[in-house]
């Protein structure tokens, strides 16, 4: 469904990568690895339609898509380094706001379930400024179950998570893929995501 | 001095009684607000305190 | 007797409860006497007619507005120096009453100004500094309100109150200077008639009433604050239950 | 049939109004976290207004001449003070890229943000302006014109400010462009303050007010798109 | 011997001057990289000052009477506009906690930051003021007193403002900062505007200027410590 | 040298931990683990002298120290979640500035060596805003070799680092301990730091 042809990215005078081809069909996951600064984040932002590629094309369901194309925006859930949390809002308000930005008004039971899933029941009414690093990330990830999108693009989702959190994440990814979803994940940690449809892409 | 004269305050009744009324009202409002606050605090402490 | 015992909110709570009725009663008595003197006993003024009777509430509130700020700053200093929670709570409890008296001084002053000066508001030195004092009170309360963590709010607002207290005399002086620079708002407060003994007594009584009232209301408010903040400390619930059992 | 108008497979963009509503709710909730915040905003205006007699002296005639200008400057200041919150923080914490990625039209989301900015900074002033104008000794009809002018003008300040703020986010020369946007404030301020002056002299303020309305319309149409374009460049 | 004056095992605090120098260099360098915000502040000042003649009409006597007050009120507000930037970003990105942890005395580091802030925001106003004063028809000696007054007064504004900015760290509100700081600015405004007024009437501004200098000295001594205490509270 | 007695931390109504005792002598490391939100960051900030403990005492070389005590400030290097980088300054300027804040003027060769050690030679003149997540962290960690301090307090130093970066970090920690340094490290990832003097502290 998502297919890239000969993607290249340039920053300043340096070419970060070039000739990147990948193809994701339902149930596929692409795990992007590489050293710090090798261009993982850059690639993911191009795939999400946020950034322009220096070269190459991206297509969704066989149709070429430009950055910020509505088709892509309706298909992608991108969770990057920045959590998009507002310090003054509570964890629940933050989650509700972010979820409804992508998927219309969120039902309050669904919100609670999502928070409970990520073990944030007791932090529901805390302002985000009081949350710990991992808890902030958990609020961001709780969107995964609230925003139905075929393609997840996750940039280092396991950062700051404890072991239980990483397990939870793998679980959700597994379910998503099993249901015919797709995912692109950049990571430094080995996350236990395996199966015939998981492919690796290593940027040098 | 008649009662009416007293209330008229030599023509300055509006200002004099206005000033006194403002003070009386403000103080009454403060007393009521603080009462309500301590009642609420009592209730919460009684409910929420681990002493129960 | 160890007075430091009462520096802990837990032991101050009942003490404050016992003191409050006394101060309330004193406030009512002084106010009754002061009002009698002010509204009935004192004769009508030759120049201002009966309008001058506003002085009995005006001066009391104006004095209290400044005094409470000083007391508040004192408690803030204590709370910063000795890291004393109760002192911070006292300051927190005094601020709304101080702001109220400041507002009342402005309102009663304005109501006095209309008959005597012909205008509710003039940029007179005292009125202007009183207005700035009101802003200082509001700043203190707004800062407290904006910080969630009570201990941080204690310390930040205490610091603000101290900075403000250092500035109050400077502001007062500068505003006075400004006023003379601009030849004043055409009227000066010091032109008030030399006071008859009965007037003076009435004003003093009203001021005493305001004192006692401020103490009583601040003690009550501080008890509410103690309960709100120590709700999880165990003794608070006990205190409430003990009170209910009486 | 309208359905075939959209190319096959292209989802229709969800409602612009919903998007704007989302942004208004979110930003207004942050700005007005507690009721006290509204009070603080009003006090802010009261203090700014109090400073003027302390600077220029208490002469009522002078103050009356200055009054409208001072209130307009206060509006400008409040608007500018809140501008960093408009985009810079959303940019830093990733909200802006999420907005760009959402299916709602970006100009709609941005319009919502601007509306919230105005609700938090402009509207309180409009509401308080008759009271504040009294401190300057303005008459009833002047007060009315003042409030009307602020009602028409402050949204324009928010809209123009938003364009400037968005430009500074991402463009290499954004700072420069933003500085070019700022002078656009001047006509708004002149017409706004001028309207009250016209009312005072009994000339009638219709001309100034219609100019303010025209400026508002132009800004309403143009600013959200300009700001959205700048935001898209910033998140690239 | 001086070495024994320090208790055993307690290192002597490294030089306060070095600390201040570190902060000045760092902040000045950052300010020079992103010049936009400096422009905004100066432009705001210019807009406010230009607006008044447009609002009150061309009567030279009136303008001359208003000039000092307007210029000073504008300077106050412009200073306020720049305050949120003094600590907020350092607080958000962790610089402020590193400063609190450094062996340099925190008040010295903070003084350095305030100095850099004044260089970037106060000094341009001082330099621009004679030019803007001309718009009000101020004479040469008045312009001199105006610039001198601003030279003595704007650092005081930065110092007092720093305390307010540190106290409101992490709190959303620009209006709250104004509410805390503007009342403290009043004496500076009165003496500053008064100085120019005195120069106009030929009385000589020595008294007002010395009062401004005294206020500056007092603020220099007190404000860095108060601001440092507030920063310590914020990073806790 | 650093000793804690019965430390407790409170946030809002919740007690995060209490009765935490530890003692670090030269060559010791304390690895703090625990679930998200268990209080690792809070403990490290108390140990660094940034935050007040709700209860308990902290002492350095046998002398009780208050928060922000000069003795502690002269002994500790704290690197937390926030990198303290200025987006407008280059990597080198950032590093120079941060290092000189704690250890006086930095020599420019030393700066280059430190950057080279963390493989940032080519990013030296890049403004920090252009750096990748891991590169930002590397700039922060490059302080380790520029600021000589007996006690390192590192909050999730391995976050965002690639495998080579983590190895480098372990290396530096090992050398530091071998030279009689001390360290407190909070981490979710297993970092290969072992030896007789490495103790774990698990917050629940
Ligand atoms: C908003 C308006 C006013 C404010 C804020 C205000 C403020 C004050 C303050 C702060 C004081 C106590 C000062 C001191 O004891 O040194 C005071 C006292 C006094 N005020 Fe006012 N005032 C206002 C209007 C007026 C007016 C209109 C009058 C009457 C013409 C007036 C007459 C007095 C008198 C006679 C005293 C007592 C002076 C003394 O005992 O020293 N005030 N006022
Ligand atoms: N103007 C520029 N000139 C040269 N290089 C640049 C410029 N801007 C960015 N870069 C480089 O581009 C790369 C961006 O990489 P990106 O953020 O995609 O890395 P990443 O693989 O996500 O790394 P990490 O694992 O650290 O998150 C970095 O190496 C950065 O140094
Ligand atoms: N006002 C408050 N009321 C209740 N809990 C609070 C409050 N403020 C902070 N907390 C809690 O305190 C804890 C802070 O934990 P801390 O940041 O030390 O966790 P951590 O162990 O570093 O977690 P992480 O692994 O996610 O970085 C969090 O659980 C947070 O929810
Ligand atoms: Mg990355
Ligand atoms: Mg942590």
3D architecture notes:
The complex is a heterohexamer, with 2 copies of chain A (204 residues), 1 copy of chain B (52 residues), 1 copy of chain C (246 residues) and 2 copies of chain D (236 residues). By secondary structure, chain A is α/β, with parallel strands linked by helices. Chain A is built from 6 helices and 9 strands. In chain A, the strands form 2 sheets. Chain A has a 5-stranded parallel sheet, sandwiched between helices. In chain A, strands 2-1-4-5 form a 4-stranded antiparallel sheet, covered by helices on one side. The two termini of chain A are 26 Å apart. Chain B has helices at residues 3-8, 13-48. The longest helix of chain B is centred in the middle third of the chain and has 36 residues, at 13-48. With 246 residues, chain C is mainly alpha-helical. Chain C is built from 7 helices and no strands. The two termini of chain C are 26 Å apart. By secondary structure, chain D is an all-alpha fold. Chain D is built from 9 helices and no strands. In chain D, 58% of the residues are buried. Chain C binds chain E through residues 132, 135-136, 138-139, 142-143, 146-147, 152, 155-156, 159-160, 162-164, 166-167, 170-171, 173-175, 177-178, 181, and chain E through 163, 167-168, 171, 173, 176, 179-180, 182-184, 186-187, 190-191, 194, 197-198, 211, 215, 222, 226, 229-230, 233-234, 236. Protoporphyrin IX containing FE (HEM) binds next to helix 2, helix 3 and helix 4 of chain C.
Rg of chain D (C-alpha, Å): 20 Å
SSE string of chain A, helices as H and strands as E: EEEHEEHEHHHEHEE
Gap between N and C termini of chain D, in Å?
Answer: 37 Å
Q: Which segments of chain D are poorly predicted (pLDDT under 50) over 5 or more consecutive residues?
A: 1-9
What overall form of chain D do the CA principal axes indicate? elongated
Please tell me how large the radius of gyration of chain A is.
17 Å
Lateral arrangement of strands in the main beta sheet of chain A = 6-7-8-3-9
List low-confidence stretches of chain A.
none
Report the order of strands and helices of chain D.
Answer: HHHHHHHHH
Please estimate the helix content of chain A: 25-40%
For the largest beta-sheet of chain D, the strand count, sense and barrel status come to: none
What share of the residues of chain D lie within helices? over 70%
Bound small-molecule species: protoporphyrin IX containing FE, adenosine-5'-triphosphate, magnesium ion
Proportion of beta-strand residues of chain A? 25-35%
Q: Taking all residues together, what is the mean pLDDT of chain D? A: 85
Oligomeric state of the chains in view = heterohexamer
End-to-end distance of chain A = 26 Å
């Amino acid at each position: 469904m998502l297919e890239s042809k000969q993607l290249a990215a340039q920053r300043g005078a340096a070419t970060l990568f070039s000739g990147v081809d990948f193809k994701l069909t339902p149930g596929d996951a692409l795990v992007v690895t590489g050293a710090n600064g090798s261009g993982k984040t850059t690639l993911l932002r191009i795939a999400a339609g946020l950034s322009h590629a220096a070269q190459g094309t991206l297509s969704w369901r066989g149709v070429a898509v430009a950055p910020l194309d509505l088709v892509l925006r309706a298909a992608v859930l991108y969770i990057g380094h920045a959590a998009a949390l507002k310090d003054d809002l509570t964890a629940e308000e933050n989650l509700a706001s972010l979820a409804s930005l992508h998927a219309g008004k969120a039902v309050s039971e669904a919100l609670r379930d999502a928070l409970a899933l990520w073990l944030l029941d007791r932090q529901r009414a805390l302002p985000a400024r009081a949350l710990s690093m991992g808890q902030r990330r958990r609020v961001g990830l709780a969107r995964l179950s609230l925003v139905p999108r075929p393609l997840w693009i996750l940039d280092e989702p396991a950062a700051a998570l404890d072991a239980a959190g990483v397990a939870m994440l793998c679980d959700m990814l597994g379910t998503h893929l099993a249901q015919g979803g797709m995912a692109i994940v950049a990571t430094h940690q080995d996350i236990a995501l395996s199966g015939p449809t998981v492919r690796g892409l290593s940027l040098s | 001095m008649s009662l009416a004269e007293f209330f008229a305050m030599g023509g300055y009744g509006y200002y004099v009684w206005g000033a006194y009324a403002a003070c009386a009202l403000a103080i009454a409002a403060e007393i009521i607000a603080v009462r309500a606050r301590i009642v609420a605090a009592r209730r919460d402490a009684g409910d929420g305190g681990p002493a129960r | 007797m160890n007075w430091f015992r009462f520096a802990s909110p837990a032991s101050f709570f009942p003490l404050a409860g016992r003191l409050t009725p006394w101060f309330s009663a004193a406030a009512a008595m002084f106010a009754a006497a002061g009002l009698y003197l002010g509204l009935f006993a004192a004769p009508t003024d030759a120049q201002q007619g009966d309008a001058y009777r506003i002085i009995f509430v005006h001066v009391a509130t104006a004095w209290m507005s400044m005094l409470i700020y000083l007391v508040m700053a004192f408690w803030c200093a204590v709370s910063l120096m000795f890291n004393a929670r109760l002192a911070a709570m006292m300051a927190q409890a005094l601020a709304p009453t101080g702001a109220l008296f400041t507002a009342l001084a402005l309102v009663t002053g304005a109501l006095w100004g209309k008959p005597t000066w012909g205008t509710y508001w003039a940029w007179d030195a005292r009125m202007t500094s009183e207005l700035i004092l009101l802003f200082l009170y509001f700043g203190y309360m707004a800062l407290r309100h904006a910080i969630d963590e009570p201990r941080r709010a204690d310390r930040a607002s205490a610091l603000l109150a101290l900075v403000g207290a250092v500035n109050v005399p400077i502001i007062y002086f500068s505003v006075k200077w400004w006023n003379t620079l601009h030849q004043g708002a055409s009227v000066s407060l010091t032109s008030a008639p030399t006071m008859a003994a009965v007037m003076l007594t009435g004003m003093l009584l009203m001021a005493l009433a305001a004192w006692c009232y401020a103490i009583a209301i601040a003690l009550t408010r501080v008890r509410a604050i103690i309960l709100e903040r120590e709700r999880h400390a165990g003794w608070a619930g006990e205190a409430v239950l003990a009170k209910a059992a009486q | 049939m309208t359905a075939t108008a959209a190319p096959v497979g292209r989802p229709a963009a969800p409602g612009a109004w919903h998007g704007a509503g989302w942004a208004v709710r979110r930003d207004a909730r942050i700005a007005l976290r507690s009721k006290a915040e509204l009070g603080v905003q009003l006090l802010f205006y009261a203090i700014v207004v109090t400073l003027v007699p302390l600077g220029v002296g208490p002469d009522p005639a002078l103050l009356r001449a200055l009054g409208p200008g001072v209130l307009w400057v206060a509006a400008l200041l409040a608007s500018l003070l809140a501008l960093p919150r408009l985009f810079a923080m959303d940019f830093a914490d990733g909200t802006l890229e999420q907005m760009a990625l959402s299916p709602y039209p970006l100009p709609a989301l941005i319009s919502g943000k601007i509306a919230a900015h105005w609700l938090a900074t402009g509207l309180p002033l409009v509401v308080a302006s008759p009271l504040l104008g009294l401190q300057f000794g303005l008459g009833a009809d002047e007060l009315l014109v003042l409030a009307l002018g602020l009602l028409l003008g402050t949204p324009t300040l928010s809209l123009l400010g938003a364009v400037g703020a968005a430009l500074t986010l991402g463009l290499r020369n954004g700072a420069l462009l933003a500085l070019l946007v700022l002078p656009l404030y001047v006509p708004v301020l002149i017409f706004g303050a001028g309207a009250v002056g016209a009312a005072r002299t009994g000339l009638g303020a219709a001309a100034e007010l219609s100019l303010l309305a025209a400026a508002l319309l132009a800004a309403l149409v143009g600013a959200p798109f300009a700001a959205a374009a700048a935001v898209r460049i910033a998140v690239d």
